[in-house]
Each structure stands twice: as C-alpha cells, then as structure tokens.
Amino acid sequence: MSQEAAANYYSKDFEWNHLRLEIETNPSFLYHLLPFIDDTNASTSASTADANSDSEAWNKFHTRHSTGKFFKERRYLLKEFPELASCRDYAKVLEVGCGNGSTALPILRAKENIVVYACDCSNEALDRAKENIAAANLISAEHRYHPFLCDISTSGFPEWLACSSCQERFCKSNCNRVDFCEVSCSEESSCCIGGVDLVTLIFTLSALPLRMMPTAIQECFSVLKPGGMLLFRDYGLYDMTMLRFDPKQRVGYREYRRSDGTRSYFFSLESTRDLFSSAGFTELELEYCCVKSTNRRNGKLMRRVWVHGKFQRPKGS
C-alpha cells in the first residue's frame, strides 16, 4: 500500500454526514437513537461493582484470546500520531489501557530511547503484553517498557507517576523547560518520575462506563506535564459495530454491553470535545476517521468510524 493509499485508508474513505443521514432515516436503527432510561440506582457502590465486573470481563477476554493470532500491531499509530516518533529523547509515554501490547510495540519501535509506562485493569492483558514485547526483541525494551496494574476509573494513577507536590508545580509553572518537574524531583527526594510527556488513550475510554470517563480523563490530565499531549483514538458514532448491537445490549445512551461482559461506548465529536475540555485540555485536532474495508471471510463491505483527537495540557494549568 502506497503512502497516499494508506492515508486515504485511515482517514476519509466516505463522509460521516452521509452515513449519519442514512442511519438516522432507517427505521431499523431507530432504537440506537432513543433516549435511555436507567432504572438502577447509580450509587458509588454500584459504580465500584460495575468497575470490578468490567475488569473481570477483560481478564476473561484476554485469557480466551491469549494466542498470537489475536495480536495485531497498530502500525498506523506513527502516521496518525507522528509526535510519538518526533518527541524529545528519553520522552516518557503513558499508555492507558495497554491490552496485549499492540499499541506499546509500535511506540517502542518509533524511537530507541523512548520510555513507555503502560497500565491496564487486567492482569491477563499485562501478561500478554509483556510476552508480545519480549518476543519482538527490541533494543533494551526490558528497560524502556514498564507495565503496571491500574484501573483509572476507580483508583487513579499511583503517586510514583506524578506526586502531589509535582502536580502542584505543574499548575503553578509557566516554564517552557520540558524537564522542569524531573529536575525538581531528582534534586529533592526522587519521589516520582516527574509526570509524562505524552498520554495515549487508544480504544480504551470506550470500555469504561460513561459516568466514569470524566474521572479517568482528569487523572490523565493530572500526570501530564504542562504542554504535554494526549493522543486519542476510539469508536465513533455509527461505526458498524454499534449498529450490530441489539436493543437488549444497550446499557446507556450510545453505551452497550457485549455478550462476554465487556462494554463499548461510541463517541461523537461533540461528546469527545465536552469530555476533554471539561478536564482542562485544549483541543488541537478532532475529527472522524471513516474507513471502508472488506471482510475477508464473507466479502462484505465494512464501514468503520473512529474518532481521532489530539489534546494538550496548557502551560500553567
């Protein structure tokens, strides 16, 4: 595939507004558009129970899909997010929801001295990721890849990513030096790694309940250095996978639960913008990626919709 063809494949194979008109005028898809009435009491204890259930569902998912056949390296990342290859030497990347390592691997390939901290709510996912990255035989990968268990929708990030003192400095500083917090920590008590330069949220946020997303995004904001970027890619509104869910699988407005217990939310540009701006991020890029592909088994055309975004933490925030 040529560079031009690759660009077309991952961006604008069709117009999202044409798809929207087709879906919203089709009576068979009406139930996707209706308001959702939740009869349950969304208490804190219920939210925690949901999160525990989600983590267990993803553990079982990665146990079932532990073979190499399921692993597909996301090679498009460097084209969609060139910042991963052009960042400063020894830049720190936090990958939220690392899954089986399909995102971490191309990031580690992008730059020989980039450092990746990767978290997931599933121990099984972390094990698969470590296996896949070890099998790739990358230069000093064992020193540049640091996985850890974390469910940001319930517990938040550990203090060693960015301690409270450093987070306060982030808010007060208008300094342009990218190593500002790292220097402060190393000179004082080495209390943390000084925050991260880049955060990736690649097909992760959609797996959380909608009500927990603001907390998760705020957590990402809190460990990102001033001027740092968050790179986002996730399921877009009217993606073909959304249209395959039946009415009984709806658990919220644009929220669905699969038969295996995992969940998925489908973002519009407006809902994405609201979530990130409310957390304090500045929007740099936000668009639908509309991709046509063909199912190799049955020859059917698939219309995929993803939301692509880049958001920045302002200096002095």
Tell me what the structure shows.
This protein is of the alpha/beta class and 317 residues long. It has a single domain (74-312), classed as Vaccinia Virus protein VP39 (Rossmann fold), CATH 3.40.50. Helix content is 37%, strand content 22%. Strands 3-2-1-4-5-10-9 form a 7-stranded mixed beta sheet, sandwiched between helices. Strands 6-7-8 form a 3-stranded antiparallel beta sheet, with no helix packed on it. The radius of gyration is 20 Å and the shape is globular. The chain starts with a helix and ends in a 5-residue tail after the last strand. Belongs to the methyltransferase superfamily. METL family. GO terms for molecular function: RNA methyltransferase activity; S-adenosylmethionine-dependent methyltransferase activity.
- Assign the CATH architecture: 3-Layer(aba) Sandwich
Strand fraction equals 15-25%
Describe the global form.
globular
Low-confidence stretches: 1-9, 42-46, 176-189
- The CATH superfamily is identified as Vaccinia Virus protein VP39
What is the third-level CATH name, the topology?
Answer: Rossmann fold
Helix count, DSSP H or I runs of 4 or more residues: 14
Counted beta strands: 10
**Structural class by sheet pairing and helices:** alpha/beta
- Compute the average pLDDT: 85
Our Rg estimate from Cα atoms comes to 20 Å
**In percent, how helical is the residue content?**
25-40%
Taken together, the total number of domains comes to: 1
